Every structure is written in C-alpha cells, then in structure tokens.
Amino acid sequence: MKHLKFIVFLCVLTFTVSCGQQKKYVDYKVKEGETMRMIAKKFDIKTSDLLRLNPDFGRKPGVNSIIVIPNRKIKTLGDAIASEALKDSIEKEESIRIEKEELLAALKKDFVVYEIKKGDTFYSLTRFYNVSQEEMIALNPFLLEGLKVGQIIKIKPLAEGDAIENHIYEDVIEENTSLKVALLLPFKTNENDTITSKDLFVKSRLANIVTDFYLGAEIAIDSLRKQGIQVDVNVFDTEAKGTKIKNILSENDLNENDIIIGPLYSEEAELVADSAKIPVVFPFYSKKQHLFSSETLIKTSPEKKVFREELTTYIKDNFTKGNLILVGDGEASSNSSNRIMKESLESHDSINVVNVLKPENGYIEKERFLNILKPIEDNWVILTSDDDVVVADAINSLISLPDSTHVRVFAINKGRAFDKIANSKLASIHLTYVSDEYADEISASTYLFNRQYSEKNNALPSFHATKGFDITYDLLMRLASGNSLKDTFNEGASYRIETKFDYSKNPLGVSENKGLFIVQYNKDLSLTRLK
After folding, report:
1. Average per-residue pLDDT in the chain?
2. What distance in Å separates the CA atoms of residue 2 and residue 250, rounded to the nearest whole number?
3. Using CA atoms, how far apart are residues 313 and 307, in angstroms rounded to an integer?
4. Which of 20, 94, 157, 345 gets the highest tally of CB atoms within 10 A of its CB?
5. Residue 174 — very low, low, confident or very high, per pLDDT cuts 50/70/90?
6. pLDDT for 380-403, tens place per residue?
7. Burial group, residue 318, by CB count within 10 angstroms (0-12, 13-18, 19+)
8. Residue 30: enclosing H or E segment and its boundaries?
9. What is the predicted pLDDT for the residue at 375?
10. DSSP-based three-state secondary structure for 157
11. 3-state DSSP call for residue 189?
12. How far apart are the first and last CA of the chain?
C-alpha cells in the first residue's frame, strides 16, 4: 500500500509540473435558460465555487454572458493518470459492489429491503414503511446498536403489492445554498384597506385560508434558515381573482426566482406558468387542475381519481374472501366511479362478484342491505357517494345490523358528508378511508411545529397553516440539494408534518403529487394509518 501511495504521489507531482503552464480556467458562454446551479452541475463543480469565481454575476447570468469555469482538460488528464495508478483499488471496490448487489437480490425475494443513508432515523423509516421499530429490530438484531450508513436491512416480509420498491427522499443541503422564492397569494388588501390585520381573520374565509397558509410557510422558511439556507422571499398580493396578476407579470421578472408558490386560482396559475421558466407550484386542489398542460406546473394536491385508485389497490391487496358492496347515489359521477371500481375489483383473482346498491326514492332501505350482506362472513361496504342523506342513511343502517353480520365500511375520501356523523358511529364500523393528510400527534416534528407556530401566532396551526409549512419546506429543501426540482422527484417520496409528497409526471408532462394515506377509525376513536 505504501508503494501504491508513493506511485500516486509521483504521478500527481509529474502531472502538476507538466500542467503548471496550462490555464487553470477557461471562458464559458452562458446559454439561454441556464443558471449558475445548472452550469455547476454540468461541469461537476459546486455552485458556491462557481459563484466565487464569477463575483460580478448573479445566480442567473444573462444569455451569452462570458463566465469563468475550471479547465476540464486538466481535470480529465489528472483523472486518467490517477485512475491508472489506482486500478487495483477500483477493482476491489467493484468486487464489493457486486457482492452487495447479490445480497440485495437474494433478500428482495422475500423482504422489502432498504440501505441506510445519512440522515435516516428509526422514526423516518417506521413512518415511511408503516412498521414499528420493534418489528425492524426483530428482523435485524444488529439494529440494537443503532442505524449505520450503508447497512442493508430487512423492513418487513414481502407481501403482494410490495414488489415495487419505494424510496425515501433524503434531505441534502448543498454548501452555501441560497434560494429566492416568490409567493403569489390573494391577500385581497385592496378590498380590506380599512380592516386591521386582526379583524382580517374573521371577516373573510378566503383571508383566513391564505393568511394561515402564509404563516405556515413562514415557519418553514425560518426552519430552513436555521439550517444554514439563505432564503430570500418576495411576496406578491394577487388581490381579487383576475385583477392583479397581469400587472405582476408585466412589472416583475419572476424568473429571477428559483421557484414560484401560487397563485391560488387555476386560471392564474396557468397564466404564470406560460411565462415562467422555473417551477410554478399550485398549492391547493382545484377541479380544473386536470386541465393543466404546462411542464413548469407542479400540483401538490392529488387528483380525486387517485383517491379511488388508492382505495381499489388497497382492497385488492387485502381482501381475501367475503362480500363486497358498492354504495352510490345514482348520480352520474357516482355511477361512473362505481363502474370503474367494479370492473377493476372483479378483475382480481380473489374477487368474483361486486354488488352495487343505489338509492330508491332518495335512500336505501335497511332491508336491501340485509338481502345482500352475508352473516358470519366479512362484508366490505364501499361508499362512493358524497350525498349527505345517502351517506348518513347508509351508515345508520349498517350500525344497527344483527351481531352475526360483520361489516367494515370504506370511503374514497372522508368528505363533508361525514362531518355531521358522530365519530362514535364511524368508529363502530371501522370506517377506513383515503386521505391526503395524516398527523402523528406524538412525533417530535409535529410537536416542534405546533410549538413554534403557537409561540409566534398565539394559536394552534390550522389545516391550511400545516399545508403551508409542508409544501414550502418540502420544495425548498429539495431545491437546497443543488439539483433541479424534478430530478429530486425521481429520488423518492418525502413525509413532512401531515403530508406525503410522491411526485410523478402525467402524460402532459405536469408533475403531480400522488402521496396518499389509508386511515382507519378504531373503537377508541383514535386513527391508525394502514398505508
């Protein structure tokens, strides 16, 4: 080994002398759309180093600007000399890599497996894979000594539906990272000039939503700054729908930012995306968001059809035998949902027939349930209706069945139709539903966020405040890695306070979040995350 080090030293010394007269740096002409981060990645150097070499240029130099970059020829020649000297070492590393891959392949036949990365914790792993720390240690006794980077561990025995490998996104912060963020939200100050900020909370529901989202985003930005990320925030009030957005676009170059969060309305989001070369984040759900076609747009809320697909997949993976019943309301949307789910479920090996019930004269008589439900067997009832009367009537019938008839009720989502129904009733039928939020109240991250928000705003965070935190923190943390946002989407899903972010591109090239949970009511009124 000493001889090898001496040979490498001679090679480097020879290389240094021979290249001493060569230029260390060369000029580079900036192409359209390129940023310093993109150029740094292209030439495999740090963004911070490139900025130091070019102090007269910002993060987004103009087209055809001449900047200085390290001479790649020198680096290439040096790599060639070093690689020859270290050939034996590389071959050993390759042997280790092959052995590691063979081990992974053998384990993957029977288990969901994972390689520990920097920053992983028992909490992050158990939350992502929905297993307990005790279960992981039982499969991997060496974990009693803690997690170590590079360890290959068994998460859980492989079950049907686990064949597709899931990945957790690893938070990485590039050294000396600075980000510029544009927030476009309708604070509607032009309509509230005489209202104090305190009264604004009770005067307008929209103002409540927007203000809460912003306050949550503020906590996220504060947290990122404490981790060494320089964040510059530009806030724009888009005011009433359609009145201000064009002026904002004409008077400001939003492309000077790294990301745009907002606007709130789908039409305005499309307008901004048409002129933007950077990611434009649509922070709330809209019935029109399926029409988005710009590749710069990012949808943070899953489409409603994804909820149905998630529930269908869960039932296929977990239903073995018994009776399946779909309950709709007779409306076109419910009929369509029932038809799609019925066809998909009946295509599964363990499911022969799926019964469908529709209201007659506005409701479903209890006798009609009794005619289909089977005593002793498992009866899984899937509510696809959003109608208040139909949902309430169906649940009242199902909670008053004979003791010999076992029923479990599922819903595509827990919409407003369930809000007026007592939780005790939902718990008695183990209501299981798809949700885009799940809060682990005992987690350290939830406790810390609630405390920070309460200390700053003298109130506990609302749903929209938590969304503001989750969306802002996740996107900026991904950008802080130094990679493009869409590249990070390929690196895995992430969990924040209440939200799972699992992005993929739709056929139009729009990035959309498909991160959802399966949640179940327990007898004690608590909630359990099943998936």
Report:
1. 81
2. 66
3. 10
4. 345
5. confident
6. 989 888 888 888 888 888 888 887
7. middle
8. none
9. 84
10. strand
11. helix
12. 51
